[in-house]
Amino acid sequence: MSFIASEPEEAITKAEITQQAPAPAPGNPASPSQAESPARPRNAFTELMKPKPKSSPDSKHSHPSTASKLTRVFKDRDGLGAYLANPKAFPSSRVIYHNADFVAIHDLYPKASVHTLLLPRSPKHNRLHPFEAFEDPDFLAAVKAETDRLRHLVAKELKRRFGSGSRKEIEREEALAAAGEDADQSKLPPGRDWLAEVRTGVHLHPSMSHLHVHVFSRDMRSPCMKHRKHYNSFNTPFLVEMEDFPLSDDDPRRHGYQGYLDRNLVCWRCGKNFTNKFKALKEHLEEEFEKWKAE
Ligand code: AMP
């Protein structure tokens, strides 16, 4: 059964498929090389999960020679398979957790402050297009439940990183301090709903061959966000949200590529249309990021 009838387009670049990580932006914690740095302080993810061995196979894959590039482009569409085969081989800065059925990882080229991938291990499903894999209701239910678990972890991580600057969190902390230890929790301001800031979904035309669900913060702020197609792959129907599954038989997304990646660039937060001006959108996203954090 074919799920994509028309000419597909991809959300990631050849360099990403061949694992040539972009140069990190100075001081940006979302950059892949800093995420791998042993000097990086352990965060909520790493504290929540058991430590893993320190050796990282990632380093073996950097900068393939030009001669081998084409072969690598093809081969490395299987790059996510390494996490399924041996999650223990990766550091906790890459593999967040793993169990018999799933491996959760940090995306190597994050397109948001926190960008993770959930990889189902089921051999029966994990090489299928997501639309096909999710036709199996039991499998879909299991993936949705695990996606929700990872979503909660991402929300916790957002609170850890940005909570101290959030107006709603500050209001709650102040009310708590004023009311004292015996405060009636139900009367306190609720604080920020960080779960609402986390999105989950699959790409209409995935580039990597192993089934994966994106679980990420909505900010779209990352040095790895470098192209219109990067942005649009998460901000148009090219991202099929997990809550949309099971898809109805007549869902238009079943019928192929609809030019989603070439659409005008529209700010996820304020709706301003940047047409094809990616640089202007990037600058705007920095401003929106500051406002979003402070909500
Ligand atoms: P897509 O196939 O379009 O759903 O996206 C694949 C995702 O995998 C992208 O967000 C890439 O940044 C990410 N990615 C590609 N190679 C790796 C890798 N070796 N480790 C972790 N993430 C990767």
From TrEMBL:
Domain Aprataxin C2HE/C2H2/C2HC zinc finger: 235-291
Pfam families in UniProt: HIT (PF01230), zf-C2HE (PF16278)
One example GO MF annotation: single-stranded DNA binding
Keywords recorded for this protein, A-Z: Cytoplasm, DNA damage, DNA repair, DNA-binding, Hydrolase, Metal-binding, Nucleus, Zinc
Record's subcellular location: Cytoplasm; Nucleus
Keyword DNA-binding recorded: yes
Substrates-to-products reaction catalysed: a 3'-end 2'-deoxyribonucleotide-3'-diphospho-5'-guanosine-DNA + H2O = a 3'-end 2'-deoxyribonucleotide 3'-phosphate-DNA + GMP + 2 H(+); a 5'-end adenosine-5'-diphospho-5'-ribonucleoside-2'-deoxyribonucleotide-DNA + H2O = a 5'-end 5'-phospho-ribonucleoside-2'-deoxyribonucleotide-DNA + AMP + 2 H(+); a 5'-end adenosine-5'-diphospho-5'-2'-deoxyribonucleoside-DNA + H2O = a 5'-end 5'-phospho-2'-deoxyribonucleoside-DNA + AMP + 2 H(+)
Function of the molecule: DNA-binding protein involved in single-strand DNA break repair, double-strand DNA break repair and base excision repair. Resolves abortive DNA ligation intermediates formed either at base excision sites, or when DNA ligases attempt to repair non-ligatable breaks induced by reactive oxygen species. Catalyzes the release of adenylate groups covalently linked to 5'-phosphate termini, resulting in the production of 5'-phosphate termini that can be efficiently rejoined.
Protein name (record): Aprataxin-like protein
